[in-house]
Every structure is written in structure tokens, then in C-alpha cells.
Design goal:
Number of helices: 6
Order of helices and strands: HHHEHEEHEH
Distance between the termini: 72 Å
Low-confidence stretches: 1-6, 184-203
Number of strands: 4
Strand content: 15-25%
Shape: elongated
Structural class: alpha+beta
Number of domains: 2
Strand order of the largest sheet: 2-3-1-4
Mean pLDDT: 79
């Protein structure tokens, strides 16, 4: 009788201390990551994709998390639950950054004329608006451009190369209609953005 009970007990401990916590951890990562992306989709006004993400987020919770929560019997499970939640937030933000959704306004302020930078931006098909202003220490030139989020790093690099001391800020843009935007796209964004295009306003 001892020979038959020992393997069962061993399997029970394996499930309680390894398999169950791992399932909790992975499930939490999945539903929290989707939830984080869903919040970002809502902020970008992608009204068709946000409910779809919410559907899968809740579906995972009902089918997996709901069942697992009924079998919590080990402190390791609580740690796995909290760890999965934390990791899910981190992974969700990484996914959102990779998707690079939305448009942003890049505002640049130069203490002198920025003709060189303006020419380089226009060569790359960025729409540019320039105005003269008055700063704290004298005349300045303010340059505006609205670009897809995935192009921000390229624009910032141009600004730094043109004038490392230049002041610039990057702000969210809720709605864009018409305008001049660069034609090139990175290969890993192309297919996904084509799927998003019917759902995005002002594009």
C-alpha cells in the first residue's frame, strides 16, 4: 500500500508547488498584458480593437484564473499570482511600445535658425511648421512636426545631430486629419498597421 500512495503524494506535491504556481504565473501574465494593451487601445480611440482585447482578457480570467483560484493551497501560488501581475504589466507595456500606435507632436525650440534641420526633415517627408518666437534669452525659432509614434526616435536623433542643446518635447495627439507624413515603414510594423488602418480616425 505504501508503494501506491507514495507516487500519488509525490505527484500532488509537484502539482501544488510547481505546476499550479506556474499556471497562475503564466495566466496572470497573459490577461494583465492584454489588459494593459487594451487600456492603451482605448486611449488611442481604437474602438473596435479595444473591446476585442477586453473579450480575450476576460475569457482568460474566466477559463483559467477562475479555476486556479479555487485550488490555491500553497503560499507559492500567492507569490506566483503577484509575480504574474507585475510581469504582465511590464510585458504589456513592451508590447504597446512595439506596436507604436498613434501620432505624436514633436515641438523643438532653437535659439537660432534651424534651416538645416528643417531641410533634413522635409527631405524625409516629415511635415514641418516653423514660427518665430521670443524666449527668455532672446529670439527663438519654434519647429513643429506631427509624426507616427514609431518615427519619434528618428526625429529626435535628427534634432540632436543638428543642435545637441536644443529643447524639444513630445506630446500625444488625439486626432489628425490630412498632413504630410513619411512614406517609409519598418517591416515589422507594416502588416499590423494595415490591419489597423480601417479602425483609425484621421488616417
Amino acid at each position: 500500500m505504501t508503494e501506491t500512495i507514495a507516487p500519488v503524494s509525490s505527484q500532488s506535491h509537484l502539482f501544488a508547488w510547481v505546476i499550479l504556481p506556474l499556471l497562475i504565473f503564466l495566466s496572470r501574465i497573459a490577461d494583465v498584458s492584454i489588459g494593459t494593451v487594451r487600456v492603451i487601445l482605448v486611449s488611442r480611440r481604437l474602438k473596435y480593437l479595444a473591446p476585442l482585447a477586453g473579450f480575450f482578457e476576460v475569457l482568460i480570467w474566466i477559463l483559467v484564473i477562475g479555476q486556479i483560484m479555487q485550488n490555491l493551497s500553497s503560499p507559492v501560488c500567492y507569490l506566483a499570482y503577484a509575480g504574474g501581475f507585475a510581469a504582465g504589466n511590464f510585458i504589456g507595456i513592451l508590447i504597446a511600445e512595439k506596436l507604436s500606435l498613434g501620432m505624436v507632436l514633436v515641438r523643438m525650440i532653437f535659439p537660432k535658425k534651424a534651416n538645416g534641420l528643417i531641410d533634413r526633415l522635409r527631405e524625409r517627408r516629415y511635415g514641418v511648421t516653423c514660427i518665430d518666437g521670443q524666449g527668455a534669452t532672446g529670439p527663438v525659432q519654434v519647429v513643429f512636426t506631427i509624426v507616427p509614434r514609431r518615427e519619434v526616435e528618428a526625429v529626435v536623433n535628427l534634432v540632436r545631430e543638428s543642435n545637441p542643446e536644443a529643447f524639444y518635447s513630445v506630446e500625444e495627439v488625439d486626432f489628425v486629419e490630412r498632413g504630410v507624413f513619411p512614406l517609409r515603414r519598418q517591416w515589422h510594423h507594416a502588416h499590423f498597421l494595415e490591419l489597423l488602418r480601417p479602425f483609425r480616425k484621421g488616417k
